[in-house]
Amino acid sequence: MSYCINPTCPNPENLACSERCQSCGSQLLLRDRYRVMKALGQGGFGATFLARDQALPGEPSCVLKQLRPSKVTPQVVQMAREFFETEAFTLRKIGNHPQVPRLLDYFEDHRQFYLVQEYIHGITLQQEVKRNGVFSEAGVKQFLSDILPLLQYIHERKVIHRDIKPANIIRRAQDGRLVLIDFGAVNNQVSQLANQSEQTTLTAYAIGTPGFAPAEQMALRPVFASDIYATGVTCIYLLSGKSPKDLDYSPTTGKMLWEQLVKTSDHLTIVLRKMLEVSVRHRYQSAEEVLRALELEPHKEAA
Known about the structure:
Elements: E1 2-3, E2 13-14, E3 29-30, E4 34-42, E5 46-53, E6 61-67, H1 74-94, E7 103-109, E8 112-118, E9 122-124, H2 125-132, H3 137-156, E10 169-172, E11 178-180, H4 200-205, H5 215-218, H6 224-240, E12 248-249, E13 256-257, H7 266-275, H8 287-295
Antiparallel strand pairs: 1-2, 3-4, 4-5, 5-6, 6-8, 7-8, 9-10, 10-11, 12-13
Helix pairs in contact: 3-6, 3-8
């Protein structure tokens, strides 16, 4: 099948060899090489598709990410361009890491913006919990030992991911390793644009996911510890199967009330508490700090 990615197309499904969409007439082969097979996901600001690169031997699969500005005024188009240039620059800065999809291409076509990335075959941690049930404490510790060194790596390169959540972490089928996807929320210039009402929708795109993003990030002041908080919320999801929107929060402190929902050792509870501190000052400041804390089993002091 060949899939049309025109947002207004009434019937995007086409025959595999079609050159133009039978419904809207859009060209189906992007940049004379990428043929979209199906939609993978869609949000308010863009969509992702599974595609094949017909310019390479074997036509390997790839992920095509399309940003669709809701308005097409020159300012919004320019801001959209900056968003995608930032994501492309970020992925280049991170470099070739085995737990981040490789950036393969980046281009603009008819005021829409495209990133082409390596396709990671596997399921997200959100899908895994829905399919297999919640994680054990040992499973969550394994998750942290897999994801925290990656966070440390991207933070050392001055990158804040800003949208860590179970839906953005894929367990790769071939080796079981966790891969962090969707670096689209990393635009550091967004705070300068927050007061420009015409660009409110694109500004919102850069904030992250409510519930996973901590207060300072929602206020457009993200720090490296913001990713630590989101990782902590992800742990609560893995342990309980509940999204942050389904949890209660203290009306006085704003803290997530999670401890009655999960069974964890005192040691892991203390670590998660500090990861989930509302105050940035009281939270772990780096992934390395969390890793060190996880290694400090209380009984080791007795010798």
